[in-house]
Every structure is written in C-alpha cells, then in structure tokens.
What does this fold into?
Amino acid sequence: MENIVLELDKVSVSYAGDITILKDVSIAAQKGKITGIIGPNGAGKSTALKTMYRVLDISQGDIRYEGQSIRRLEQTELIRRGIAYVPQSRSVFGELSVRDNLVLGAWCIRNEKARIARAIENVYELFPMLAEKRDAFAGTLSGGQQRFLEIARSLVTDPKVILFDEPSAMIAPKYSKEIYAFIQKIRDEGRTVVLVDQNVRQCANISDHLYVLELGRNKIDSPTNTMNGNAEMAELISGWIAHKVD
It folds into this structure.
C-alpha cells in the first residue's frame, strides 16, 4: 500500500499482562485519506486508536509513523511530529475558558507564542461559534459545542494526522452532520484521518478505506469503493447499522 503515514504492524496489546485485547492487528492509514475502523462492541476499535497514540503499550509488533518506529515515544513527541488525538470521552476543562482550552492544546509548543496566537486565530476562523464564546467557561457549552472545541484544540499544532474516537457519540444529530462534514473537509485539505466510529453508516460513507475488527483481530481490510463487491463486508455491516444521522 502506497503513501502509508501511520500504521500498526501485527500489533498485540494486553491488559493486566495476560488479557489480550488486540492480537496481530495491522492497520495502515494512507496520506490524505480517511481510514475507518469499525466492528461490533468489544472488537478493540478504540484500543487500536489509543495504541496508535501510545496511550497503551504493545506487547509485540510495531507502530510506525512516516516509516519510523514510534512505539517508545511519548504523546508530547507525537504531537510535535504531527499526530493529534480526539478522544471519545469529554476532555475539555470545564472551569477554564474556551480560549484557555485552546492554549492548553498547544502546551508542547508553549514557547512559540506567535505561532500559538496565529493558530488560535485560524481556529476561530474555522469555528466562529468558538470565537464568539472565547471567554465563556467551556463547561457552559453544549455537548456538540464541546466536541468542536476538542477538535479545534487538536488543530492548534497543525497536525498531519488526526485520530478521532467516536466523534459523534452522545451529541445532537445537527452537530453530528457538521462533524462528519468537517472531517471530510480536513481530509480534502490533505490531512490524514483515522476514524473509529459506532455509526457504521456514516463511517462507511466518508471513509476511503475500512478496517473491520472482530474480537481484537483483523476481520476485513477493504477500500470502500470495492465494498459493493465484497459480500462478507456487506453482510457484516448490515448487521451493525443501528445508528443513523438524520
């Protein structure tokens, strides 16, 4: 596969030393594409994403970014190299202002004041709602607005790759539509996206390539433009489509 930016190569991950969550999983994200990871509950999707971001250690295999192993790097170094992560669980600091949350997103480049100021202004142009609420406490924002703040915070370091874990979870359909449209926009601008989503329909619709995990293992690896000819993929997905963005 050409133009691989970030990949798991036959990676295994265990909790508590002996509970295997991922077994020989391989996932390759191509430059400027959306790579979707889907599967039933408990398949290891979020674990795979956390592993890419070095939240979890691997017991075997390798994690590579731009051809180099990153399996021993800290998250701050990943951010400096161009990887950002938007977690599923709420991660805004509710008692801080919107602007302060954005500044914290630039912690690893905190000495580059001019760069941070430009980045925050760029974010405000992308998200006028955040500009209007820059002095408001983040905790006063709606769930959808907080999700956009988390996405905006990930952008202040101008990442090449963004990892999204369930970006539409527990937010209103209006914001879900906007988030999926924004993910496509940043892909079209040349960024690489890895998307874990329970919303199988939307993930399949916007992804360029899909990985299906089942019980912590690779089940299917397929470009979405060939899905119509993949009977196994169609059968699996038809059983999972339970979420719909209206």
Summary: Strands lie at 4-15, 19-30, 34-38, 60-65, 68-69, 83-86, 161-165, 192-196, 209-214, 217-223. Confidence is low (pLDDT under 50) at residues 242-246. Residues 4-89+162-240 form a domain with the Rossmann fold fold (CATH 3.40.50.300).
